[in-house]
Prior knowledge:
This protein is α/β, with parallel strands linked by helices. About 45% of the residues lie in helices and about 15% in strands. The protein has one domain: 3-Layer(aba) Sandwich (Rossmann fold).
Amino acid sequence: xxxxLLKGKKGIIFGALxxxxxxxxxxxxxxxxxxxxxxxxxxxxxxxxxxxxLSKLVGDAPVIPADATSVEDLTALFEGTMKHFGGxxxxxxxxxxxxPNVRKGxxxxxxxxxxLQTTLDVSAISLHKTLAVAKKMDALNDWGSVVALxxxxxxxxxxxxxxxxxxxxxxxxxxxxxxxxYGVEKKVRVxxxxxxPTVTTAGSGVKGFDEFIAYSESMSPLGNADGxxxxxxxxxxxxxxxxxxxxxxxxxxxxxxxxxxxxxVISKFEPEA
Length: 273
């Protein structure tokens, strides 16, 4: 049910590929809560995905292609967005992640270092570039909100997550560091949401992903949070209800992150009677 949490607010959603995407679901939920949107993704991702269909579902939102690793593209994106809205914006969702090493099955101990640079640039440094461009252009209103999606592999080892774990660690560090400076100067808050493993096009490319989901479900007291629940959480972070939350890595994972072991997992190792 719509509560107009974002009525009058305007924002950019990065990374919606198809209806599996958390970014896609977040765009729908933000629109339902009264927000006006601009959608963006890298040109190659836009050719693969269905973002123009999403645009129709969220009030014919403009779609502005942008490679988030390109300062020039990001500058054009914010210029186009502010021209469309006739002023500054209130929130940004950074839902971007890609690892050539993971896609091509390279083991973490034998990564291609050129591909690692791509992983870090796309999945983490793109957040720094986005924030830097927004700050230089004064594109975000005071008390604006930036949310980036991450995963607990930044803190704990998940062997097949590969160099994406390093990228997520950097992403969370950028959130803290840039969040401080942006908060001091403009009261803009910057947070990451550490989501349960979720069935998306990107996530499904990780080896052993189905096992990830099954294990997490059996460990989490509340079960895995799905993509729609994550979208709702992001909406709450865009809203004024969370205006003093910043520089945080917020676990949205059904309690997985604070569970040492569950009875369900223990029972799998108990000897049969």
